[in-house]
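Lab notebook, design round three. We kept the backbone fixed and only want residue identities now. Task for the bench partner: fill in a sequence for the structure below.
Input C-alpha cells:
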C-alpha cells in the first residue's frame, strides 16, 4: 500500500464515521480501496466493488477461516485441525485446500467468505476516532492478497449493523432527538428488506408506511425500545430512505450492485450465522468514546443550522461535501496555472452557477418546451457527461462542489421532465405561476402513501380497503405501473368474478408488459390469473421469465418446482 499513490480522499473517523464512509461509497457506486491506519500504526484495508465491500484485510489476524466454517456447521474441529496442519506443510489457502479435499464445495466456500468478511467489517467498526483513512479510487490494493474470489455482501445490511455498534449511540441519540417532533416520510423506493430489519424494525417500517409519523409518536406506541427506534431511523436517514420536508435526492443504493444480483442472501447456514453475529454486535462489543464533533455531517438530514455553520464542522475533504440546500456556490476567478481549456470550463461553470436559480427546468436542460422525452434524455446525457462531479478534473478540484450543486439541479430537472405525470404537473404549475416543485411532489407523495396503505390492508386481509387506496394511488399517479398492476390484482380477487371481467384484467396486464416486459408485479399477477383460467403453460412462461429477472423470487420458483413435479408424476 504505497504512500506515494494519490488518494482520492482522506480524513479521520472523528470527522467521518465508519458507517458514513460506507454510505458515501454506495451512494456513488465507487470501486477502490479504503485504507485505515490506527494510532498503533496497524493498517487495515477494505476493497469496495461498485459500492459493496468485497474483501477485507485486518492489520492483525482476526476471524480465522476454519473457525467460520465450524460456526456455520460446514466442518468440525477435527477436520479444521487436520486441514490446518496440512496447510502449514504444503502452503496455500486453507479454503482452497478444504475445497480440493472435498470437505466443502464452492458454494460453502463463498458463504463462509461472506460471513468472514462481515465479521471483519464489524471488527473495523471499533476503530477509534483518531484512526486515519484514505480512499484510493479504482485501485484494488488487495488483488494479490488472499484468494481470487470476491464475495461482496449486501451493503445496506452491513451499514445498518455498523450503525448498531454501541459506540455510536451518543451521536445517534443527539441527532434523532433533534428531529423527534418532525413527521417522518418513508420512501416508497427500494427494498427495505435489504437492511435485514429485525421484527421490531419491520414494525417501525409498517407504521411509517401507513402515514408520516414523528419519532415521539413511534416511541409512544411502544412497538420497540427507544434505542432500537433511534438506531434504525438513523440508518434510514443517512441512506435517505426516511426524510422530512422535501427530499432532494433518491435513497442510497436503489440499484442492487451487479455482483450481488445472483448472490441472494447466501445459504441458510450463512443467514443463521449472520443472525448470531447481529446479536453479538448489539450486546457484547465494547464501547469507545465518540467525540461530540462527530455529529452527523455527511448528509445533514436533520441539521437545523444554516449551510455555512454546518460546513464549519465538516472536514474540507472532497469525500464530505456539505451540499447547500438553499444557495448556489460561487466560483472564483480562474487561476493562471490552468490550461486554456480548463479556464474556459471554469468560466462556463461560473456562469451556469450564477444563473442557476433563475432558470426553469427546460432552460436548465437547454431544450424547448415542446421537446420529446427522447430530446430531453439526450440533452441530459450531454450535460451529465460535462458537469457530473466525477467528470471534473483534479486541476478543478476546488470547484467540484459547485459542479455537484449544478448537476443536482440538472438531475432534478431531468427527473421531473422525463416523467409524463410530473412534467404535466410542472407545465400546469408554470402556466398558473404556482411553485411546480410543491405541486408535483404533493401528487407523488400522496399517491405513494395511498399505495403503502393499500399494501398494508391487503396483508391484513382487507381487500375492500386495499382496493380503495390502490384506486386512489392510481388516480393521483396513473403512470406508476406498480400501482396499476396492484389495483388490477386486487380487482381480480373480487367474488364473484365473471370470465369476461377476468379476461379484461389479463388484457390490461398484457398492456403493461408490452410497455415493460420485465415488470415483476405484472408477470407474477398475470401468471396467477392465467393459471386461474386454465392457461397453465402461459402461466409458467411468466413465472420462468420472472425467475430469470429475479432469481430470489421464491414464490415464482416454488410454482415452477410444483409444476415440474406434477408433470414428472403424471409421466409415471
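Proposed sequence:
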Amino acid at each position: 500500500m504505497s504512500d506515494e499513490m494519490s488518494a482520492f480522499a482522506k480524513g479521520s473517523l472523528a470527522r467521518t464515521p465508519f458507517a458514513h464512509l460506507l454510505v458515501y461509497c454506495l451512494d456513488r457506486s465507487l470501486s477502490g480501496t479504503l485504507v485505515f491506519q490506527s494510532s498503533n500504526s496497524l493498517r487495515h484495508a477494505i476493497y469496495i466493488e461498485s459500492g459493496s465491500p468485497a474483501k477485507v484485510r485486518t492489520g492483525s489476524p482476526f476471524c480465522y477461516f476454519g473457525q467460520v466454517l465450524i460456526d456455520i456447521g460446514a466442518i468440525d474441529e477435527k477436520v479444521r485441525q487436520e486441514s490446518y496442519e496440512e496447510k502449514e506443510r504444503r502452503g496455500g489457502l486453507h479454503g482452497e485446500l478444504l475445497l480440493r479435499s472435498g470437505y466443502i464445495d464452492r458454494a460453502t466456500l463463498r458463504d463462509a467468505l461472506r460471513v468472514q468478511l462481515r465479521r471483519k467489517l464489524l471488527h473495523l467498526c471499533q476503530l477509534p476516532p483518531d484512526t486515519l483513512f484514505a480512499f484510493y479510487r479504482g485501485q484494488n490494493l488487495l488483488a494479490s492478497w488472499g484468494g481470487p474470489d470476491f464475495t461482496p455482501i449486501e451493503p445496506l445490511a452491513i451499514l445498518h449493523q455498523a450503525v448498531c455498534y454501541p459506540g455510536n449511540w451518543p451521536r445517534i441519540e443527539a441527532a434523532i432527538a433533534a428531529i423527534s417532533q418532525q413527521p417522518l416520510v418513508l420512501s416508497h423506493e427500494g427494498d427495505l428488506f435489504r437492511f435485514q430489519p429485525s421484527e421490531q424494525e419491520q414494525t417501525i417500517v409498517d407504521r411509517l408506511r401507513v402515514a408520516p409519523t414523528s419519532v415521539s409518536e413511534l416511541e409512544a406506541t411502544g412497538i420497540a425500545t427507544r434505542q432500537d427506534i433511534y438506531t434504525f431511523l438513523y440508518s434510514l436517514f443517512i441512506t435517505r430512505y426516511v426524510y422530512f420536508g422535501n427530499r432532494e435526492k433518491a435513497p442510497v443504493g436503489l440499484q442492487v450492485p451487479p455482483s450481488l444480483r445472483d448472490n441472494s442472501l447466501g445459504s441458510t447456514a450463512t443467514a443463521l450465522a449472520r443472525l448470531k453475529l447481529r446479536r453479538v454486535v448489539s450486546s457484547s462489543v465494547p464501547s469507545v468514546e465518540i467525540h461530540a464533533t462527530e455529529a452527523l455531517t455527511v448528509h445533514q438530514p436533520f441539521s437545523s443550522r444554516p449551510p455555512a455553520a454546518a460546513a464549519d464542522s465538516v472536514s474540507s475533504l472532497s469525500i464530505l461535501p456539505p451540499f447547500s440546500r438553499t444557495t448556489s456556490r460561487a466560483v472564483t476567478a480562474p487561476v493562471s496555472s490552468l490550461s486554456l481549456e480548463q479556464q474556459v470550463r471554469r468560466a462556463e461553470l461560473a456562469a451556469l452557477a450564477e444563473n442557476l436559480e433563475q432558470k426553469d427546468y427546460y432552460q436548465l436542460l437547454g431544450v424547448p418546451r415542446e421537446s420529446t422525452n427522447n430530446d430531453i434524455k439526450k440533452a441530459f446525457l450531454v450535460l451529465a457527461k460535462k458537469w457530473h462531479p466525477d467528470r471534473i478534473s483534479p486541476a478543478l478540484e476546488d470547484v467540484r462542489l459547485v459542479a455537484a450543486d449544478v448537476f443536482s439541479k440538472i438531475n432534478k430537472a431531468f427527473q421531473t421532465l422525463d416523467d409524463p405525470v410530473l412534467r404535466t404537473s410542472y407545465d400546469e404549475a408554470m402556466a398558473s405561476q404556482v411553485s411546480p416543485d410543491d405541486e408535483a411532489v404533493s401528487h407523488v407523495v400522496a399517491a405513494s402513501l395511498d399505495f403503502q396503505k393499500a399494501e398494508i390492508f391487503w396483508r391484513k386481509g382487507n381487500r375492500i380497503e386495499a382496493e380503495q387506496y390502490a384506486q386512489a394511488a392510481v388516480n393521483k399517479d396513473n403512470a406508476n405501473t406498480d400501482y396499476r398492476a396492484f389495483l388490477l390484482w386486487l380487482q381480480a380477487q373480487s367474488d364473484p368474478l365473471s370470465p369476461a371481467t377476468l379476461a379484461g384484467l389479463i388484457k390490461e396486464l398484457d398492456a403493461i408488459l408490452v410497455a415493460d416486459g420485465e415488470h415483476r408485479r405484472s408477470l407474477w399477477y398475470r401468471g396467477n390469473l392465467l393459471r386461474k383460467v386454465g392457461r397453465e403453460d402461459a402461466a409458467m412462461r411468466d413465472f420462468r421469465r420472472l425467475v430469470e429477472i429475479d432469481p430470489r423470487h421464491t414464490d415464482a420458483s416454488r410454482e415452477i418446482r410444483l409444476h415440474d413435479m406434477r408433470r414428472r408424476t403424471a409421466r409415471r
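Keep this in mind before ordering anything: The chain has 24 helices and seven strands.
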